[in-house]
Amino acid sequence: MSDTPPDTLSNNPRSPHFNEDALRRGIGIRFKGVERRDVEEYSISEGWIRVQLQKKVDRHGQPLTIKLTGPVEAWYETSAEGSEEEEK
Length: 88
Prior knowledge:
Elements: E1 8-10, H1 20-25, E2 27-31, E3 34-36, E4 39-43, E5 48-57, E6 63-69, E7 72-76, H2 81-87
Antiparallel strand pairs: 1-4, 2-3, 2-7, 4-5, 5-6
């Protein structure tokens, strides 16, 4: 696995951009220069994030989100398992 996170990632299993392996490693997001912990979905190339709108849910029980636009940076919070073994 590379050290570059996916361009688009979602933490909703219903989304086509859901990637369990990437989420297991942990993703850090910086949006407009501020580190965010409440991001539901992001796209680096398109420059947007989706965050949950308080505790509101739709009729299917999914959280309501709002799309915010601006510069997005993403990184893995933990290194790949294979690269840790190589360093030892």
